Fold this protein.
Amino acid sequence: MEDKIPLPHWKKALKPVLATVTPLVLLPIPLAVGTEASWVGFLVLWMCVFYVVEPVPLSVTSMLPIAVLPLIGTLSTEEVASFYLNNTGLLFMASLMIAAAIESSNLHERIAFKVLLVIGHSEASVMLGVMCITVFMSMWMPNTAIATIMGPIVITLSAKMALPSYHQVPSIECVKINGDAMGDGLDRPLEADESRLLKENHNMLKKLMLLSVAYSSNIGGTGTIIGSSTNILFKGILDELFPHSTELTTATWMLYNVPPMIVCTVFGWVYLRLVIKYKRRKYSDSLNTRSDIRADIRPQYDKLGRVSFAEVCVLTILTALILLLFLFKPQFMTGWGDLLPHGRKMKSSSPALALCFLLFVLPKDPKNMHSSEPLVSFKEFSSRMPWGLVFLFGGCLSVAEASKSSGLSAIIIDTLNGIRDLPSSLVLVLLCFAGCGLSEIVSTYVVTGIFTPIISELAVATRVHPLYYLMPVKACCLFAFMLPIATGGNAIISDMGKLRTLDMMKLGLAMNICCVLIHVASVNTLGGVVFDLHTFPSWATKDFGLPSSLLNGTLVNATVATTLPT
């Protein structure tokens, strides 16, 4: 009997086959139809299959528009190439520059240990502190970096919290534990049962503390545009689809997203605390562990030494970046960008990169100017820069523009007859759960790149404000709490804690459902205040340039049926 070929070998063998067969299978569609829209549809389907199956890397798939769109005459090579490094890509670079500076200066560690020193008096407060720190840093740094930073800290803290209190009643028959994984310096004899319970408690606490990092890093990414690269991609696609829209800025993004972000974080903390209490119900009366771990955190904080010049500079630049982006063109008031004589030509990447320029100029040690390195070296930045995402951004943006200019968007709108008749609130719930579910198994970049144009087309067709659907769905695409493969942060946390996929799925399901419902409630309350979602904007129809048959027929009939709930 022949040995079976291992699955990884099968995958490698299938990749060139899929890469060759997929376009050949799809090619009859445009050949039979013969329209420009059908050729763009062929490209979209080709890229979607490649994005899901990944016979080649995502960034390589994203190069296809450069070759195909000029060939079919939809866009010129210069037009397609302009999407690969525009305001979206430059803003993404700026966010990674500031993230590299935070890591290089160890500012993140000082913030983390300082917060835990202040509130680390109980197990519950430590978990809340960890989640708040993770959420805040995730607003400005990539999730994978946050997981890498906070994971080891959480493992150490959970080991300290799982140690027994020193005032427990001495045992009779005992097993002595010296230098155990539960912590060093534990010389008090423990009963065998107590030792087992302590280990169970430690493993449980470590896993749930690590999950708190995974949950809060995903939640924190919703708070700012630069909090996640998919947010930047979403904003870029939106700017291409609706160039006359001015409603979504850094300020309005934060005003809308930060409140539900806080609610989701608090819910996650309460939920995990209830899980801990439930898992301890069997031995809560017989096991007494430490609560105040500030004495264990103090040495870690002291190792950082005095606040350095680099930390002060990075914190100052980060604060200035937040203020400049927030007050650039906030819409609800006159921003500093509106006051400039040529402010209409400026976008958010300009002030962001201007501040980040200082990171490469200011020295880490001003006392040794001749030998000091800058706050961030270009080598540090380039080593952290995922250049493949630049191609991914460009591929999604160029396809979105090609779909609109070729008329494919109008065709998609005309095929959405069934959804048009549904109440907008129900459609919103379905879209949010669909985005959340797909993000568990498909890259969030792919979900964002595919969903954003389709949902925009649906919103215009049903005369619903596009942001009513887009903002909550975009947030829900980041709520991938169930699977290790869903996000890089999940994978890192799962590996650190040796978490079983089944455990993550059972605990993450409740988080997914509740966070989705929180955002559905938020868009129906706060969304109307921030974005005036009860009024269909004139720029939506204008920017899509829909044919008159759609505007005069379906859209007019759908106006009353899809009025947003008040």
Q: What stands out?
A: Confidence is low (pLDDT under 50) at residues 1-7, 166-188, 547-566. The first helix runs from residue 7 to 26. The chain has 29 helices and no strands. The CA atoms of residues 252 and 447 lie 23 Å apart.
